[in-house]
Design goal:
Number of strands of chain A: 3
CATH class of the largest domain in chain A: Mainly Alpha
CATH superfamily of the largest domain in chain A: Cytochrome P450-Terp, domain 2
Oligomer: homotetramer
Strand content of chain A: under 5%
Order of helices and strands of chain A: HEEEHHHHHHHHHHH
Largest sheet of chain A: 3 strands, antiparallel
Distance between the termini of chain A: 71 Å
Mean pLDDT of chain A: 95
Shape of chain A: globular
Largest interface: A-B, 92 and 92 residues
Strand order of the largest sheet of chain A: 1-2-3
Helix content of chain A: 55-70%
CATH topology of the largest domain in chain A: Cytochrome p450-Terp, domain 2
Chain lengths: ~280, ~280, ~280, ~280
C-alpha cells in the first residue's frame, strides 16, 4: 500500500527513488512493516526484531531460540581473527567505536565472513537435488561434485584450521535436533550436513567435522534464509565481539598499535639499498 | 588468571601484545570470560551475550528486558538517515553486505551516532551533582550550564527535527518506570531526564521532549554503562536496519544509485566555464 | 636480499609473517625498494612514486605523462556518483576527512569502480588472441564472445549512461597516440579498443564509444599494469574528488545530510499499519 | 554563477540540496571549477590537479614541487603502522583493493593521521602571535604553552618513537629553504618550526627534532592550506603505500591473515574457566 505523497511530480519521483517496504514515517509515527514501533518495543526481543526487519516475518518462539543460538555462537574468535585484530588496532589510532566497527566488519568478506553464505547455497542445492529417484547420499555426491567444479576443493562449513572439533557446532546441531522434534524446523538440512560430513570423512580417511559456519548455515537453511543474509547475520553477530575488543583496547590504552610488539620489525626481502640514479 | 604459554621469551612478548580478558582458546575449547561457549549457546539470549561480552557481567532478566527494548527501538529511521541511505547506495556499487554495513556504520559518528553517548555523560554528570545540599533541580541547572559552556547550546537527547513527540521515547520511559518499581533499576536517571525536559520546556516556552537518544541514554545510565558504549550499542542496533535496507536494495536491483533520480543534476555555483590558460 | 634480523627463532618467525619487498627500515633510515627516501623526495614526482611503489619500476617520462593523464581524468564525476555523495553525507555525521574518504572509497567496488579493471582483462585477452592466423578483428570477435559468455552483455569500457561522447576518452586516446609515435607505448591496446568500438557500433547501429574506464584501461594495458591495479589506481584518482567534496561539504556545514532535502520523505510500499498481535 | 536548471520547484530544491562549486556537468561536457576536463588532461600534473580540486587554485611550479615532495614522503612507514597492516590483513579476507584501502584509510584518524593537521594549527597559531612587540621566540613560548594547556604535553610534529632523526624531515626542510630563496614561499613557518625544535630541545636536554608530520605541516602552512586538509592530503599520500602493500599481499596469498604467525595465541588474563550457572 502506498502512502499519499504531498507534492506529486518531481517530488514524487524523488520519493519513488527511495521506495521501501520496511519503514513508514510521519511526524510522531514510525511503523516497521506496518507495526507501530511502540507496539514492538518491550514486546519483541532484539533477535525477533532482527529477523522481522531483515526477513520480513516474525519468527516463532522455537525459531527465535535457534536464531539466538546462531547469533550467540559467532560473536568472537579472538585477536588472531583479522576482524578482531583490526578492531583493536583501529581504536588506538584516534577514531571512535563506530569507526573501529566499520573497518572490522568491512573485512568479513568472502573468505573471512562468506563461508556461512556459501554453505547455505551448497545445502540448498543438495536439498533440491533430492527427489523420488535421488536419495540424500546421491544428492550430496552430485552437489559436492558440482560445488567443487565451480569453486574448487574447499567445501564451506566443514573442517577448521585450529579446532579438530569446533565446540560450537555439536551444541548448535543438538538445538536443531530439538527443534526438529518439536516441529519448528524440518531437520532436512541437518541431514544434508550430516551426510556431507560422512562423505568428506570417508574421502579423507579422517573426520572433517562440521564447523560453526556449517552449523549456523544448517540453522539458517532450515529457517529459509536467503544465502547472502547468512553473511549479513554473521556480521551482526561478530560485531558484538568487535565492539567488545575495541572497547577493551580503549580501556587498555596504546597509540598506533601495530601487529607486533613495539620495536619489532618485519623481514625485508626486496632490492638491496641503492642510490637513486641521477637523470 | 594467566594461561600457561608455551615458548616464553619473544613469543610470550607477542602473546602479551594481544592480551585480553574476553576470550580464551585452545584447540576444541573456547571460553568467554571463563564460560565455555557450549554452555552459553542455547542458554543465554543474544542480548544477554551482547551485554556480557561488552560490559563483562550478565544482566538480570529485568535488565535484559530494558536492553532488548533499547536495541529494538534504534534499528532504523528510514532512508533520509545518512546511515540507511549509504547502506542502500553501497549495495548498488558491487560490494557485499559486509561492505555496505561498514560504510554505513562508519557514519554513526559524533553527530549521527553520538547523541546517546553524550546524553549518558550529561545525565551522569548531573546525577553526581546531587547531594545533601543540591536537589535534582539544582543539579540539572548546574549540569546544563556546564554542558552548554563546554559544548554549545544543543542538549543531547532532547527535541527532534522531525517528530514533535518521538514515539519511541515515552514507551521506553514506561519500561524504565516498570523496572524501577521492580527494583531492577533505581530510576534516578529517569528523574534526571524528566527534570531536564521540564527545564528545557520552561526555557523555550514549548515542549522539548526526550527523544530516542535520551531515552536509551536513561536506560544505559540506569544500567551503569560507560558512556562511549552508548554509541557502540547504538551501532549494533542500527546495524539491523542497515542490513535490512542493504538487502532490500539488493533485491530491488539498480546500479550506482545516486541520491537523486537518474538524470537529475545538482546545482553548480562555481566559476563560469573558462579555457585553461596556456603556460 | 634479507636484512639481518636480531633475535632469530620466534621473533624471526614473526618478522617473516610480515615480510615485504617494498620498504626496509632501521632507525634513521627508510628505503623504498632499495632507494633511500631522501633520494626520492624532491626528485621523483608523486605519480612516479605511485607507479614505483605499486608496480615496482620507475616509469619513463613518457609513461609518467600518460599515468598523470589517467589519474587526472578520473578524479570526480559529481554528487550523483555514489562515492561523491557518500563523501559529502559522511562529513555531516561528525567524523573526520579520513572517515569520509574510507566510506566513499569502499563503494568503488565491482560496479562503481571495477569497469577499468574488467576492461584491462578484456583488452589483454583479445591482444593475446591475435597471432599469425588471427587478425585484430577476429580476435575482438572471439574475445567479445568469450567475455559475454562469462560475464553477460555489458562490455566494460564502452558507452555511458549520461554522456554520448565521454569528453575524457578522446583526449586520453590522443595522448596514447602521441606516446605510440614516440615509442613510449606500443599502441597495440589502443588498436584493440578502437576495433571493439567499431564492432559494438556496427552491432548496435549507433556509436557505443569508448568511455573513461576504457580509455584509462588502454593506458594501463599499454603500460603492463596487472588488471586489479586498474581499480586500485582509480581509487587513488577518485580519492581526490572524494576529498574535495568532503571538504567543501564541511565548509558548507549541515548535520546528518540525507539524500533528499530536509522534510522530504520516501515512498512506503509495504504493509498497511496494523497492531502488533498480542501473544 | 548558477547554471540554468530545467524544472524549477521541487527539482530545483533537490538540485540546491547538492550544490557545489567544484564540478559542473552536462551530457558530453565536464568542467572542474570552470576548466573543461579535456583542457586539464595532459596539461596539468596529478599533484596540480589535487591542489586545484581541493584548495581551488592552481599551484605555481615551485609550489607544486613542494607538494610533490610532501606527498612522496608520506606514502609508507612499513607493516608496523596500523594502516599498512590493516591493508594487508584485509586483502586476505576476500574483498577487493577498494575495500582494503577503505579499512586502512579509515584508521588515519586523530592519532595515526592527525599530527600534521594539528601541527599546521600550532604553526599558524604561533605565526599569528608574532607582531611588533612579540618576536618568534616569544610567540613560540606562548603558542607552546597554549597548546599544552589545551591538548596536553605531546607537541605534534616533533620527535619520533622509532627514528632519532626522521630522514624525511631534513630533506623536506631543504626544499622549503630553496623555495623560500626563489620566493615561492615566505619561509616564515619554517622559521617557526625551527624555533619550536630549539625550544623543545633546550627543555628536554636532548634533540626533539622535527619529524615528517612537522615537515609536511611546514610546507602546507607555507602554502596556506586549511589545517584539516593536512590530514586529507596525508590520506592521499598514505593511500599509495596502502595500495602497494594490499597488492603485494594479494600476490603473496594467504587467508585470514592474523597479526601473529599461524598457531600463535594471545595471552588470556581474564576469569578462570567456570561453568555457566543454571538459572
Amino acid at each position: 500500500m502506498t502512502r499519499d505523497t504531498v507534492g506529486g511530480g518531481d517530488r514524487q519521483a524523488a520519493a519513488e527513488w527511495w521506495h521501501t517496504d520496511i519503514i513508514d514515517m510521519e511526524p510522531n509515527r514510525i511503523t516497521f512493516r506496518g507495526y507501530p514501533v511502540e507496539d514492538l518495543i518491550g514486546r519483541v526481543s532484539f533477535v525477533e526484531m532482527i529477523w522481522f526487519m531483515v526477513v520480513g516475518v516474525m519468527p516463532t518462539p522455537g525459531q527465535a531460540k535457534l536464531i539466538e543460538a546462531a547469533l550467540v555462537s559467532g560473536v568472537d574468535h579472538g585477536p588472531q581473527a583479522p576482524s578482531i585484530a583490526i578492531a583493536r588496532m583501529s581504536m588506538t589510532c584516534g577514531g571512535s567505536l563506530n569507526n573501529a566497527m566499520a573497518s572490522a566488519v568491512n573485512v568479513l568478506d568472502d573468505i573471512h565472513g562468506g563461508a556461512g553464505e556459501q554453505a547455505i547455497g551448497l545445502f540448498r542445492d543438495i536439498e533440491q537435488r533430492t527427489n523420488e529417484r535421488v536419495d540424500i547420499a546421491g544428492a550430496c555426491r552430485e552437489g559436492l561434485a558440482a560445488w567443487r567444479h565451480a569453486h574448487g576443493p574447499i567445501v564451506p562449513g566443514f573442517g577448521h584450521r585450529f579446532h579438530q572439533i569446533d565446540p560450537r557446532a555439536p551444541r548448535l546441531m543438538g538445538l536443531v535436533a530439538e527443534a526438529a522434534e518439536t516441529g519448528d524446523v524440518s531437520g532436512r538440512f541437518a541431514a544434508v550436513a550430516k551426510e556431507i560430513e560422512t562423505q568428506l570423512g570417508e574421502a579423507k580417511g579422517r573426520p572433517i567435522p562440521l564447523n560453526i559456519d556449517g552449523a549456523t548455515a544448517v540453522i539458517f537453511s532450515e529457517l529459509g534464509l536467503p544465502a547472502p543474509l547468512g553473511r549479513g547475520l554473521f556480521c551482526l553477530s561478530r560485531s558484538v565481539g568487535i565492539l567488545a575488543h575495541a572497547w577493551e583496547q580503549q580501556t587498555q590504552g596504546g597509540r598506533n598499535k601495530g601487529p607486533l610488539p613495539k620495536g619489532w620489525l618485519w623481514q625485508y626481502d626486496g632490492q638491496s639499498t641503492r642510490p637513486y640514479p641521477s637523470r
